[in-house]
Specification:
The chain is α/β, with parallel strands linked by helices. It has 8 helices and 21 strands.
Amino acid sequence: MVILAGVAGLLRSVEISVLAIGGLLLFLAAAHAVRGRPTAELSLTPTPPTATRGEWVTITVSAQSPRDSRSQGADVELVRLGPAATRVRLPALAPGASWTCDVRIHALQRGVHRLSPATLRRGDRFGLLLRSEPTGGGEAVVRVYPEILDLQTPTSDLGMIENGVARLLDHGTEFHGLRAYVQGDDLRQVHAASSARTGRLLVRENADDSVSSTSWVLFDDRRSSYPADADGDQAYEDGLTCAVSIAASAVRAGSGGALGTLSGRTVTHYGDPADHCRILDMASEADPVVTGDPAAGSRVARFLATVRESATVWTAGTAVVVTGTESPDALDVAAGLTGLCAPVIVVRVGRGPTSVRMTPEPGLLILSVGDTEEVVRAWPRLLGALTGQARWVG
């Protein structure tokens, strides 16, 4: 416009002069429309504050105009709980006026989503200028949890641990493990060989009465363990869903143990039904670890030490390691658990057909799946094969 005015002055053209003046006036009008800040006080309240991925969350947007001034209208852009942004129109308010609007948002992205600050966008009616600025909204957050799948915690196959080595029991028998003799036990259930070896009376336990007292779950939260493309992003989310679902099943069954990450960043211990919420909170915060952490190895070692301290002659444990198809060392970590837990199951999530593979390590097997749907279909068959009640058919 300034250039047009200069050209008009040089050429002494009335038409260009009028066009330049009109453009300048239009620009000034647009600048006037977006000047200043909206004066309404904004607050955002989610209902409910937590949701499972795929559920809907209602966000109540409230605005209060000051008593002594009129607030300007604007578009309010809310926090993204899915791939698309959600906007609501905040009208201009008279002095002292209030306004409330409920907006339903589809929670499609796991994570901890802070509602504030929201983004106010104001533009002129001519579409020349657009102003965006953050505004208040309180400290409210929405936690979106992964879906909890129906994945039963494996039953331990440990009979006892001698010299730090887990001894597996044969499938297809009623015998499950050994425990100390207490008054009233059937003397016919005394295991003579083990009693003589340990110097104390040990009695057999039936498989129907066996409940794993500890259940350990390790999730590989390193982004490099999954494919580098968008399929890897989904594989990471599917792996996290599997790990959390197995830990949640252990909590419901009354098992103790912990849900840890292979980066060593987080360890969440559980042993009470109330710990279910703690596991979900940990899952909502489990963003992929992109860079290496020099201290990660020592933290994973401490996790394994905790498992080792919990493994006694009277307790049995199971372990599940959930990782991606690109992990270089998850199998090594799982192999380190085979002397303490049985079974040890490695779930590899990523490209490829569903399959199960036994390894030379006793009690260690690998389940490869493409997504959570394949895990749900394969898991009951896998557990059936472990207990001898079914045969795996690939």
